[in-house]
C-alpha cells in the first residue's frame, strides 16, 4: 500500500526486537564457559528482551490496522493480541526452563534461544497476509520446534520425538505447498487480499479445484494446531520432550496456528457460497473429532503431563468451534479462550513440572495428598482443573460460555451439544487429579524442592487471572472485542 | 426493579463472611471454628425468619421490596439480580434452618475442621444463590458452584466408598447442567440478546410457543426441544427416574450433615428449577409433557419404594425413600392444578424437614454403632431392641418415621393429600397407582422399624447411650416443625398461595 519498506520497518518493532533478543542470547551464550552451569544472566536478558517485545505489542494494541511490506504482512489488533498471548507463553516457558531440572543446565540457554525464534515464527504466522510469508512463518516455527523436541540429547525418546516431529512436519509442509501452488494456479496470486478478490469470480470448475487445494493447505496449519487427524505426532512429542518444551508446544504453536486459521477463514470464506459450506463443514468435522479424540485419549493416561497434553488437543478443538462461526463474535471467543487457556495451561504445567523434577516422573500417584504437604499448590491445581473443565465462576467456564454463545447464535446446536458432552468427559479426568491430590493420603512427607516461595508465588500469580477473569471478564472482553481481523 | 431492602444480600453474603472468618481462625482453635460457624448460621437463619416476617403474602409475583438488581457483565446483559417469592421463601427458610442445625450435628467431625466448615458455608451460600437468582446466568453459576463444595464434602469426609460417590455425583449433575447451559444460551438469543435477555422473569409466559429450529434439516419445536434439555438438567438433581442412580451412592457415602443438606435442600433445587424456570418459560411444552412427567413421577414413587424395601443398609433405605417422596413432588407438579402445585411445594418443605430428621437420626445411631446394617451381609441382625435401650431416640425416630410415612396429624400427610387431590382431576389412573406407593412407604418404614427397634436386644446394642443434650437440641426444632405443620400448615401454605396461583394460572392458558 502506501508504505515503503523502510517505513514498514517502524511498524515491525516487536518482531525485530524478538529477533534481536534471539541474536543477543546467542552472543551471551557464546561468552559462557562450557563447564559453567549457572546462566542467570542469559535468562535475565531473555526476560528483558521478551518483556520489551510485550510492551511494544501492548502499545500497538489500540492502533488502526495496517498492512506493510507491500501488503504481505497485516498488523491488526487481532494479530497483536495473539502475539501478546504467544509472547506471554514464551516468557512463561522460559521461566519454567530456568527452574526446571528436566533440561540439562547447559542446554537451557538453547531452549531460550529457540523459543524466542519460534516466537518470531509465530508472530510472522499470525499476521501473514501472503502465502509465502505464511509458509516462512510455519517453517521458522517448525524447524526450530524439531530441535526443541529433541532437546534431551541423551534420551532416546526425546530423539524419537524430534525425528517424528520432523518427518510429519516435512510431509505436511509439502502437502501444504502443493495446495498453495494450486491456489496460485487458479487465482494467480499469493497475496491474501488478491486471492479473496479472485475467489469471488470463480467458475464452477475452478471452485472444484480450489476447495480441495484449500483442504491441502489446511493440513499444514492443522498440523501446527495438532487437530485430528493431524495430531498423531502430538502425544509422542509431548511425551518425549522435557516438560518446559511440552508447555511451550501446547501454547505458542497452537495459538499461532489458530491465529492463521482465523485469518484464512475470515478472509476467504466469510461470504456464503460453496466454498464457505465446504470449509465450515470440514472444520466442523475436524473440531468435533479433535475434541472427542483428545478427550477420550486423555482418560486413560497415567502421566499428568500426557493427560494435559491430550486435553490441550481437545481444547484446540473447542477453539476451532469459535472459528467455524466466521464472525467477530467467534474471533473474540477464540481470543478469550486462548487468553484463559494460556494461564491455565502455564500454571498447571508449572506444578506438574516441579513435581516431576522431584520424583523423575509425573504419574498421578506422585500427586497424592499434595493438599497435606503443599496446600496452596493443591488448591491452585484444583482451581486450574475446575477451570479447564469449565466450572463457573472460573475463566474456563466463561471461555466455554463464549464459544457456546458464538455457536448458538449461528444455530450450530449439534456442535454445541457435542462440545457440552465433551466437557463432561473432560471433567472426569480433571477430577481424577483433583481427587488424588485432595482425597488420597500423602505418599511421602518429602519436600519438593521446586516449590520455593518464589515459584509458588508465580503459580499463584498465574492462577489469579483464572479466577478474576471468571468473575469480571468485561474488560478483557472489550480488549478482545476490539481485536477484529482486518479484511480489506 | 430495585427494591428498598438489602435483606437478600445480607442472607446471601453472611455465609461468605463466615467462610472468611473460618479461614482466618488459627488451625488449633477447633472449637472456635465450630462456634463461629454456629453463630454465623444462626444469624443467617434469623435473617431468613426476618425475611419471612416481612413477606407480603398478597403479592402474587416477586416481592419487589426485596429485589436487588445490579449490572454484572453489561455487554452480555448479565445482572446480579436477586428476588424472592412464595415459592422460594419456604426453601430459603428451610435452608437457613437445616444449615444451622447441621452445624450442631457436625460437632463430632474431627478431620480438617477448618476446611470442612469453610466448604460447608460455601455450600450454604451457593444454595441461597440458587434460590435467590432471577438472572439465568447467575442461577447457572450458583448451580454449578455448588458442585465444588459438595464434591469435597462427600469425597473427604464421606464413608468408605466416598470417592466413587463424589465423582458420580459431580459428573451426573455436570452433565445435566451442560444441557441447561446450551438451553440457557439459546434462550438468550431467542429473547433477542437485549437488556432483559437473561432475566428469568422476562422469559416467563410462553414467549417461545410456535417457534421452530432446524437441525440437519429436521424441524423441531424450539420450546419442546429446550424444555427437554432443561428437564434433564433439573431431573438429574431431583432425581427423576432414570437419572437417580447417583443418589443412593452420594447419600450413603456423605457425612451425616451433608446427607441432610443433600436430601433436605439440594434435591429441592431440582423441583424448584421446574417451578422457576422450566414450567414458566415453556408453559406450552410443560403442559404437553405433563402426562409423561406424571408417569415418571409415578415410577419414582413405586420404584423408589420397592428399592427402599430391598435395602439392608438403613441409610440407603432412607435415600431410596427420598426418591419415592420426590416422586410425589413430581406428581404434584405434573398435576398443574392449584391444589397439586401447592401440595408439591409444601411437600418440598415437609420432605426437607422429615427426611432431615431421618438422616440426622441415622447419623446419631451411626456414631454409636459405626455401622448401618439392618441385616448384616452374613444374615445376622445389625440392630435389635433399640426401643428399650434408647427410649428418647426411639420417640424422635417414631415421629420422623410417621411424618415421612404421611400419617395424619404429621406434616407429610397434608402435602401428600393435597398432591393426590390435585392430580386426581387430571390423571386418575396415575393417582390410583401412586396410592400404592403410600402403602409401600408405610410397609418399608414399619418393617425397618420392627427389625431395628423391636425384638431382643442384641449384644452390641446394650452399651449404646441415649441422645445427649446437643442431639436433643438439634432434633427438637424439626420435631416441632413436623408436628406443627402437620396440624396447622397455614404458615407455609399462605406464603406460597399467591405465587403458586399465579404460576398455575399461566399454565392453564396452554
What do you see in this structure?
The complex is a heterodimer of chains A (488) and B (510). By secondary structure, chain A is mainly alpha-helical. Chain A folds into two domains: 1-268; 270-488, no CATH class. Helices cover 76% and strands 1% of the residues of chain A. Chain A is built from 21 helices and two strands. In chain A, strand 1 and strand 2 form a beta hairpin. The longest helix of chain A is centred in the middle third of the chain and has 32 residues, at 156-187. Chain A is globular and about 70 Å long. The relative contact order of chain A is 0.10. By secondary structure, chain B is mainly α. Chain B has one domain (7-508). Chain B has helices at residues 7-24, 30-54, 88-105, 113-132, 136-145, 147-157, 162-190, 200-203, 222-237, 246-253, 256-281, 283-310, 314-335, 338-369, 386-389, 391-405, 411-424, 428-453, 469-487, 490-508; strands spanning 68-73, 78-82, 212-215, 218-221. In chain B, the strands form two sheets. A two-stranded antiparallel sheet of chain B has the order 1-2. In chain B, strand 3 (212-215) and strand 4 form a beta hairpin. Chain B starts with 6 loop residues before the first helix and ends with a helix. The interface between A and B is medium-sized, with 33 and 34 residues.
Distance between the termini of chain A: 11 Å
Name the strands of the widest sheet of chain A in spatial order: 1-2
Number of strands of chain A: 2
Ends apart, CA distance between termini of chain B: 28 Å
Count of DSSP H/I helices of chain B: 20
Alpha-beta content class of chain A: mainly alpha
Averaged pLDDT of chain B: 88
